[in-house]
Amino acid sequence: RQASYKIEAAVKRAKSIDIKGVVYILATNLDGTSGKMYFNKSEILLIKGAFDHAERLAESKFRLGRGSLNSHRYEVKTLLHMEDHERNDRAFAHLCRYFCQKNEDVDHPDNFYFFKVCLQDDRIVDAVKRSKPFIKMAPLLLYIAAHELVHVIRFTNGDSDFDAPLEEKIREEEKVHSITRDMLRPIAETDLALVLDCFSDEFQIGDILN
Fold first, then answer.
1. CA distance 116 to 162
2. What is the DSSP letter of 65?
3. 86-100 exposure pattern, b = at least 16 Cβ within 10 A, e = fewer
4. Where would I find the beta strands (DSSP E) of the chain?
5. What is the Cα–Cα distance from 133 to 129, expressed in whole angstroms?
6. Quick one: pLDDT at residue 30?
7. Secondary structure in 3-state letters for 51-63
8. Which pLDDT score is estimated for 204?
């Protein structure tokens, strides 16, 4: 059975979904709560599972060896453990790059860049709450994880310039959206297919900061 289907098909079956409403929730920050919302313990486990799954998919997509992403230095942070500059109210995830200098010679091989995928708990939790029962946490986290890992791989491999001007970054974001959808579409059961269909190139999943 064809796994990927248009959101309109889901609407016909559900009868009560507001298409524009779901898409708008996913594309914008609609957090109306006072204070921040944080991932709970079960959602933290979902994050680990999402990134483990996304790593395997990315290694296959980019023809990397099993476990090769271990050499692509990155870590995942949630809102509770972020610095102020790692927070972002425009995206579900904020990709930050840092330079670790162990040697005075900047070009020395002991020096390296590493990335932090900063998940914005409040935006993600709020989006899922407002789009219930159609958008579920696990497939949304898988999409976000896959999207951010594609960025990490492309930056690490030199396929994209982290310090590129805005116009080039916009084109890169469109390319990463396309790669992410192609990577996930073969495994897209109903819930993930709905997430894929809700996103188009103009939606901001992540943002980057040097």
1. 13
2. P
3. bebeebbbbbbbeee
4. 74-77, 93-100, 112-119, 206-209
5. 8
6. 41
7. HHHHHHHHHHHCC
8. 52
Q: List all residues 6 or more positions away from 45 whose beta carbon is below 8 Å from its beta carbon.
A: none
What is the per-residue burial (b if ≥16 Cβ within 10 Å, else e) of 7-26? beebeeeeeebeeeebbebb
Closest CA to 78 of 141, 169, 35, 34: 141
Whole-number Å distance between alpha carbons of 63 and 65: 7
Give 104's Cβ-side CA count (13 Å radius).
0
Q: Which of 207, 172, 180 has its CA nearest to residue 196?
A: 180
Domain boundaries, given as residue ranges, for the chain: 7-209
Cβ neighbours of 190 (radius 10 Å): 13
The whole-number pLDDT of residue 22 equals: 47
pLDDT for position 13: 34
Segments of the chain with pLDDT less than 50: 1-25, 27-34, 201-202, 209-210
* Cβ atoms 48, 42 nearer than 8 A: no
Nearest to 51 by CA among 96, 107, 93: 93
- Collapse the DSSP code of 104 into the 3-class scheme (helix H, G, I; strand E, B; otherwise coil) and give the result: coil
3-state SS assignment for residue 162: coil
